[in-house]
Every structure is written in structure tokens, then in C-alpha cells.
Amino acid sequence: MLRVWGKLIKKNQIKQNYIAVNNDSKLPLGERLHLCLDEICMELDLQRPIWLEQNRQDIRSFGRTNFRQDHFIEPISYDALEIEILEMDDAKE
Q1: How far apart are CA 9 and CA 7, in angstroms?
Q2: What CA–CA distance (Å, rounded) separates 93 from 85?
Q3: What is the pLDDT of residue 88?
Q4: What is the pLDDT of residue 61?
Q5: What are phi and psi of 54, to 5 degrees?
Q6: Backbone angles phi, psi at 38, to 5 degrees
Q7: Cα separation of 65 and 58, whole Å?
């Protein structure tokens, strides 16, 4: 099971949040993470951010990453979208 917490942050406060769950252990971890990000964006009514190499490194090192205005094509009304892995099975990336 993969559980990912998505948080919209504005002025250092969580304005909205959603926890996405993916139970499909047959998929690679990276694909499951992207599916959770898609679900978070849909539930919070957000455009999908651009996933950069730095985001991948942050997820691997810290289990979380931030998406700021530079990660979006259109202007956003919040400071950042942060995603954090809450629970992860033993699947390898």
C-alpha cells in the first residue's frame, strides 16, 4: 500500500489537504506515486505540476517534495503543493 498526503500551503498554513491511497502493488513505485499525485490534484482541483529531477531526489531522500509556482504553467493561488509519503510497502522503484 502507498499512502501519499497532499497539502496546499499558503503563508505557512495548510489550507487544504487530501490523502491518496494506491493498493496496486504490481505497478512500480514511481508509477504508483504519480497516480497518487494525479488523484491529489483531481481532488484538490489543481493543475498537475511538472515533476523535475529535484522532486525525485527529494522523494527518495526525505519522503516528501514541494511544488512551487515554477512547477506550474498557470499562476497558482497558494505558495506550494507539498506531497509526503505516509506509508509505503516494500516495493522497489
Answers
A1: 6
A2: 14
A3: 84
A4: 96
A5: -60, -35
A6: -60, -45
A7: 5
Per the structure block, which three cell numbers stand in for 53?
529531477
The amino acid that residue 50 corresponds to is I
CB 55 within 8 A of CB 65: yes
Which grid coordinates are listed for 90? Answer: 516494500
- Residue 93 confidence (pLDDT): 47
* pLDDT tens for the chain, residues 1 to 93: 999 999 999 999 999 999 999 999 899 989 999 999 999 999 999 999 999 999 999 999 999 999 999 999 999 999 999 999 999 876 454
Amino acid identity for residue 91 in this structure: A
Within its chain, how far is the Cα of 60 from the centroid? 13
Instruction: Give me 28's grid cell.
Output: 512500480
What's the per-residue H, E or C state across 62-89?
HCEEEECHHHCCCCCCCCEEEEEEEEEC
